[in-house]
Structure formats: C-alpha cells, structure tokens
C-alpha cells in the first residue's frame, strides 16, 4: 500500500527538530518510488525530487507540526505548485467564437471529451458548436453526432470527403455566422505519434486559429505521457490538457509529467464514459492521489488543528493564570508526544525558538523520568503541588514508587515551581532568559 509506504518513509524523520540533509534522504527515496509507481516519468521524478530536497533541507519545523508531518505537507505542496497551484480555466476569445482544438492519440477520449466539454459549457449557459473533423474512421462522425443529440448540442459536419482543415475552417466560420460562442473541433488521432498526424494537426491549427489546443491524454498510458506531450507540444503547440480515464486504477502521475514537460495546465479530467463525467482539474486533489495519501493529509491537518486550537490555547491560559499543575503537565506530555517532539511544543510558546537539539534531547529524557514520578502521585498531589512541598513523606513515597531518590523528587518539585513562575512571567510578555522547565 502506497500510503503505508509513505508513513514508513517519513518515520525516519519522526522526532527530529529540523529537516536535515541526512534525515531527508531516506524519505526522498520513498517519495521517488511512490512517484514512479504513480507512473510519473523518470526525468520528471528526478527533477521533482531535487526541488523537494532543496526546499526541505534546513526547513524549520513549523508551529504545531512534527518534521514527518511537515515533510509530507512539503512534498504535497510542491506537487500542487508543480501542477499549477489552482485550476486553470478555459481561454476565451476577445471577440467571436472561442475555438478549441482537441488533439491526441486514437482512443485517448477526444470525441468523448469534446461532447463532455460541450455539455459542460452548455450547462454554464454558453452556446457551443461541435465540429467533426475526424474523417478517417467512418464511425467517428456518427459517434460525435450521437453524443451531440444526447447533450442537445449542434454538430457541424461535412462528411468524410472534405479535408479536416477545410472542415475545421468551415466549422469556425459557421460558429461565427450563427453566433455560437465556442467551437470545439474533434480531430483524428493515430495509434502512435507519427508525422502524418502532427502535420495534419498543424494544418488544422493554421486553418482554425484556435484559442486553445487541448491535448487529450489517457491517464492509463502512464510514463509515456511525457514523450507524447513533448511531441505534441514541440510540433503543434498545446495550451492545456484533458486527462481522461481517471475512474480507473491510474494514480494520475501523467498529470505531473504533462505539466512539467509542456508547462501547460491540465484543465479537465475525465472520470467515466458518460458525458457528465468531466470535472475541472484540481492540483491539490491530484497531488493527494499521486501520493496515494489523501487520508493521511486529512489526518495531519486535523491533528494539527486540534493541537493548536484546543490544547495549546487552554495550556497557555493556564500558564498565564498560574493554575498549571502536574495534571496539566501530564497533558502537556501527551501533547508533546502527539506533536512528535518537545521542539514542536516549544515552538508554540512565544519566544522559545532558540533551543538547540542537544538540550531538547536531554530535556526529553528528563521529561520521561518526571512522567514516571507523576504516575506515582495521587490525584490530590497532582492538583496541588504544594502538598508535596509541605510533606516529606509524600515525596518519599513518590520516589520509591517511581524508582527515583527523594532528592530527585525534590529537584523536580523545585524545577516545577520555578518553571511555573517563569512561564507566568513569559506568557505575560517578557522573555527573561532560559526556561526553567523541569530537567532543563
Ligand atoms: P478518441 O479516439 O480519442 O476520440 O476516443 P473516444 O472518445 O472515442 O474514447 C475511446 C474510448 O474511451 C471510448 O470507449 C470511451 O467511452 C472511453 N472513454 C473516454 N473517456 C473516458 C473516461 O474518462 N473514462 C472511461 N472509463 N472511459 C472513457
Ligand atoms: Mg474520436
């Protein structure tokens, strides 16, 4: 399972205070594998990994997020950015009908996508005209006409005796004369990239002056999407793409390849054979799909939000009111664990971002001892640390119960009281010096 693999991949980062060259390498190896399994083409994967490495190394761990969570978010964000950030809308001609040329291999889903786009535009109150410029397969014209009837959109055809470029030009002229606002030209594809197909596409382009040349790509072709896109982009020039058959098993890695190779945005995705099965392309959804980890990201977001809003605010209020006791301390420990590190928690506290790793590690092992001591306290002792200060017998009992000396317990008690005073001072504004957290 890919999402499992991802969780494993980032385990190496868990508990680190910052992302470094060494701890990022293992995780990046697994990102690389995940992308290849999602069928992103190899050169695209390599370039992407280097970009993530540059951004990840040295990145400070943000407020309330552990390094592993942050790494996942960083990879995800980089994928989103690479795929264009937001959805790119269709171009509109300044005057006259907007002309959209559909290009791609045979079977990619061009004719279907032409009808799907026609329906999409019609539903937005536009007036599209479909043009049948695939003259090679007798069924192609019929197919478009059937789809056109189904969606209630007019289809322009001159049969199969006229050249595709002449049909395209005549279709655009008809669109202009009759006040259609969009002309969608369906063209013929071949089973593989060849010169004849490219030359024909160029002739159709020159005859119809399109505002958009949309490359229709079957997401199932995976790695090959890169070469296909390069050929069309270099020889015809594309302005966007439609990625089809995403209702299948494909992880959608082709989306990344298409964008990287051409710079052109994916504008729509096809998610089924029906004419309604078309959706605007959303980079963030595709990024989650490519990584195979939509659920993981949702969890990360949720956990982060929970920690920040509920626990931290409550804790800060308590610190301010000096009502912070050992029960709060236990809760704070849980918070630290949920956030992956003490460093993550410290960064939530204003002014406490200059603590080095050695101190953090030492602090964390000390915190474990203190947790054991708190485990031996009664509820009343947790709520009222003063009880311990007043009665040595209580301190001796806790020492015995937690496997420490009475002196250890005394020290923790002193530190705790110092910390309370310090926190109070600090949350009221000042940053007087180093924190007196117990054990630090
Ligand atoms: P063209 O040769 O590029 O015009 O491809 P077609 O539009 O004729 O589509 C080829 C086949 O793919 C047809 O059987 C379509 O029903 C199917 N198809 C197109 N788009 C999708 C899609 O998004 N999902 C699925 N499952 N099938 C699709
Ligand atoms: Mg077709």
How is this structure best summarized?
The chain has three domains: 2-82, Four Helix Bundle (Hemerythrin (Met), subunit A) (Up-down Bundle), CATH 1.20.120.140; 98-283, Rossmann fold (3-Layer(aba) Sandwich); 296-427, 434 Repressor (Amino-terminal Domain) (Orthogonal Bundle). It contains 19 helices and eight strands. The protein has helices spanning 2-11, 21-37, 42-56, 67-82, 110-123, 138-151, 164-177, 195-208, 225-235, 253-262, 283-291, 294-321, 326-338, 342-346, 357-375, 379-383, 385-390, 392-402, 406-427, and strands at residues 98-103, 128-133, 155-156, 182-187, 212-218, 240-244, 266-270, 278-280.
**Taking all residues together, what is the mean pLDDT?**
81
The largest sheet has its strands arranged as 3-2-4-1-5-6-7-8
- Note poorly predicted spans: 347-353, 429-440
Which small molecules are bound? guanosine-5'-diphosphate, magnesium ion
- What is the straight-line distance between the termini? 42 Å
Number of helices: 19
Tell me the total number of β-strands. 8
Strand portion, in percent?
5-15%
Subcellular location: Cytoplasm
Family: Belongs to the GTP-binding SRP family. SRP54 subfamily.
Enzyme class: hydrolase
Protein name: Signal recognition particle protein
What does this structure look like?
The chain has three domains: 2-82, Four Helix Bundle (Hemerythrin (Met), subunit A) (Up-down Bundle); 98-283, 3-Layer(aba) Sandwich (Rossmann fold); 296-427, 434 Repressor (Amino-terminal Domain) (Orthogonal Bundle), CATH 1.10.260. 57% of the residues lie in helices and 9% in strands. The longest helix has 28 residues, at 294-321. It has helices at residues 2-11, 21-37, 42-56, 67-82, 110-123, 138-151, 164-177, 195-208, 225-235, 253-262, 283-291, 294-321, 326-338, 342-346, 357-375, 379-383, 385-390, 392-402, 406-427, and strands at residues 98-103, 128-133, 155-156, 182-187, 212-218, 240-244, 266-270, 278-280. The structure holds guanosine-5'-diphosphate and magnesium ion (MG). Keywords: Cytoplasm, GTP-binding, Hydrolase, Nucleotide-binding, Ribonucleoprotein, RNA-binding, Signal recognition particle.
